[in-house]
Design goal:
Length: 285
């Protein structure tokens, strides 16, 4: 009698063990199935740029979290965020040959970056969370698309031009102000459903919760303020030390990194005549 009961108990235990193993095997299979697409995406994810100059401590924060120190040659991917501290700055060379300079105490996220050779389309969207960034957008011949720098208060969009965008917070009101200075070319600035167009040497101010103010010629002081902290020394041959990192499409040289010379003899000088500006594009969705 006891032998029969013992056999039944052992049989039940073995059955439970087998059931547990089956459940664990099924869970492992489901887990592998769910993780496979994510692993495939991470393995095939292509870089959208690389660091070609770094001064001080610059951190790269992947979309998945965590952070690490960036050095010359570090690759950046879609969704990454670049953070700089005091007396730190960096220069990025993007897949379309555009140059992005991240100034000190800045946080910049690579929100979207696309270069589609088949569709001949280029699209770049940088999100400036705080600080200052200088962007020299390469002219990719025969490609369509947009290139924008977003802040909490405005969107600045360009084609082939160069600009400096920075943010400031009013300590008395806590409101954020976005400033945009055009080094060369033309761009549009949109906020609160209102779009303004400005050309080389002009500056515009956008206060949080308000439409953009009218663009105007930047004063010498404003030019100096815009360019302050945006120069990063490129080592000789830095862009050529990593062969194979090229976009493979014809590009035209980008605008110079230095601001255009002041026009006139001072702040009260009459600005030069300009050709009529094209109509503004529709506000980005």
């Amino acid at each position: 009698m006891w032998d029969i009961l013992e056999d039944l108990s052992l049989s039940r235990i073995e059955g439970r063990i087998q059931l547990t193993r089956s459940i664990l095997f099924l869970m492992a299979a489901i887990w592998s199935f769910l993780l496979a697409p994510a692993l495939a995406i991470s393995e095939t994810k292509e870089p959208v740029g690389k660091f070609v100059a770094v001064e001080g401590k610059v951190f790269l924060v992947p979309e998945t979290g965590g952070e690490r120190l960036a050095t010359v040659g570090t690759l950046v991917y879609l969704g990454d965020t670049v953070r700089t501290g005091a007396d730190s700055r960096a220069k990025l060379l993007m897949i379309d040959d555009s140059l992005v300079t991240v100034s000190q105490e800045t946080e910049l996220s690579l929100k979207r970056y696309l270069l589609d050779h088949k569709a001949k389309e280029r699209e770049g969207v940088l999100s400036l969370l705080r600080g200052k960034v200088k962007v020299i957008v390469a002219r990719v011949l025969g490609y369509k698309g947009r290139y924008e720098v977003e802040t909490r208060t405005a969107v600045a969009g360009v084609r082939g031009t160069s600009m400096v965008v920075w943010t400031e917070t009013d300590p008395s009101t806590g409101k954020l102000t976005t400033w945009v200075f055009v080094l060369e070319g033309e761009l549009y600035v949109t906020a609160q459903g209102v779009t303004k167009i400005l050309g080389a040497g002009m500056i515009i101010e956008v206060v949080e919760g308000q439409p953009p103010k009218d663009p105007r010629e930047a004063t010498r002081e404003e030019r100096n303020k815009a360019m302050s902290g945006t120069h990063v020394q490129l080592l000789p041959g830095a862009q050529g030390e990593w062969p194979g990192f090229s976009i493979g499409v014809p590009t035209a040289p980008g605008p110079p990194e230095t601001p255009p010379p002041p026009t006139g003899g001072g702040e009260g000088a009459t600005p030069p005549s300009r050709p009529p500006l094209p109509p503004p594009p529709p506000p980005p969705k």
